[in-house]
Amino acid sequence: MDLVIRYVNKKGEVIERFLGMVHVNDISALSLQKTIYDLLLDHSLSSSKLCGQGYDGASNMQGRINGLKSLILQDVPSAYCVHCFAHQLQLTLVALSKKHPDVNNFFDVVTNTLNTIGASFKRREILRQYQVEKLEELLKSGEILTGQGLNQERGLQRPGDTRWGSHFKTLEKFLIIFSSIVNVLNDMQQDSLLSLDRFAAKNLLGNIQEFEFVFLLHLIFKMLLFTNELNKALQKKDQDIVNAMRLLDLAKIRLQTMRESEFEFLMNEVYSFCGKHDIMIPKMDEDYPRSKRKRSGVSYLHHFSVEIFYAAIDLQLHELNSRFDVVTSDLLLGMAYLNPIDSFANYDKDRIMKLAEYYPNEFDDNKLRDLSFQLDSFIVYARMPHSKFINLKGMKDLAIVMAETKLDQTWCHIYLLVKLTLILPVATASVERAFSSMKLIKSDLRNSISEEFLNGCLVCNIERKVFATVSNDAIIDLFQSMKTRRVQL
């Protein structure tokens, strides 16, 4: 288990620090709670100061009665838990692919194609050669330009239900190297020595060269394009939950706009793509063949527009609304009313006071009264023409400006509320990066070292920017001051 703490420093900056990795034999909620408290205590941190929790959604974390979040909430009522936004966003796509049969079949074809080509080093090399030839052809025709960072070689990446953003990257590469994939499958169909491989290549070619596959490729890619901005923003350590909510709303608005007015534009893109790759385009007024024995009574146009386009977008919007229902809570709405965007356009004193009531340990009756007076003065000052609070982009900017101008001392209760908003975790990206670092650190040689030493290596690797500021002399002095050692220095 990895533990990362999130706090606001004296400059008003949001900081996330990796505390350590702990091996746990018992993954029950009670055992995990004790492990977390012990690790905090080892760093002289009190569990009573917790102001938020964030997990990846495992059942032992999220249980309403005996889950880890519930046990911690019993001890610290203000340690509100927010399910990792990035994990929730990924689950919306997983739900879409499982609930919509056409989308499910589409991802099966994509995965099988990538597995077939990626299973052989020879096929991967042939794919790379076709990419080089295609790139040279495009450069000669002037369709693409040369430059630093442009026209990078594209590899194959399989989509994973638990890898954030993997589906978007997969479809993006599939679109770019589509012709090279077709060429590799053609070669495989004609030249492979095994009949099973030839049969697999023939089936995959037939699938990816169908109009419906190309339509779904463009549709799903465009839908993921709208949520990809949110996905990338959630990877930032200093991301605040109010800005994440705004980006989520933006993604839903763009999806709704696409549903209402962009079907014809998408169809034109698909027509153009099919023309470039010699893919047959069906007549839209003809019946869509569901069965060879009887007519479906549904035209191609109805199938692509109603049964796929509208249905897929509606399902995605439904999943976004249902899985992110937490953003409608009074807690998060109260945070949004303190957002400095457009000179505090959403400011609502009553909602902000309601937000403060969620933190009884920080705001007793006297402090709530003081907060009310401070809010009256603060909003007048913040909206003055030459105020430094003009043109702020989010809560993190508000905290930094208040710290720089020493107004965090003048309006200390407002600043505390801003810090509580920023501390609430948005995503568990830092924890995911810690697990990725473990793959680099835990080599065959280090498998034989103790867990304590391995944890030390991980901390040094993940927080290397912090350790880079520590001088060698300070390390030597600390080592010399240690009592237990074998040699005299």
How is this fold's topology laid out?
Elements: E1 2-8, E2 14-21, H1 29-42, E3 52-53, H2 59-62, H3 68-75, E4 80-81, H4 85-99, H5 101-118, H6 121-141, H7 166-176, H8 178-191, H9 195-208, H10 211-233, H11 241-261, H12 263-276, H13 300-323, H14 330-336, H15 341-344, H16 349-356, H17 365-382, H18 395-404, H19 407-410, H20 412-423, H21 429-441, H22 451-462, H23 464-467, H24 472-481
Parallel strand pairs: 3-4
Antiparallel strand pairs: 1-2
Describe this structure in words.
This protein has 489 residues and is mostly helical. The chain folds into three domains: 1-84 and 425-488, no CATH class; 89-323, no CATH class; 329-424, no CATH class. 62% of the residues lie in helices and 4% in strands. The protein has helices spanning 29-42, 59-62, 68-75, 85-99, 101-118, 121-141, 166-176, 178-191, 195-208, 211-233, 241-261, 263-276, 300-323, 330-336, 341-344, 349-356, 365-382, 395-404, 407-410, 412-423, 429-441, 451-462, 464-467, 472-481; strands spanning 2-8, 14-21, 52-53, 80-81. The strands form two sheets. It has a two-stranded antiparallel sheet with strand order 1-2. β1 (2-8) and β2 (14-21) form a beta hairpin. The two termini are 37 Å apart. The model has no long low-confidence stretch (mean pLDDT 82). This is Zinc finger MYM-type protein 1-like. InterPro entries: AtLOH3-like, DUF4371, RNaseH-like_sf.
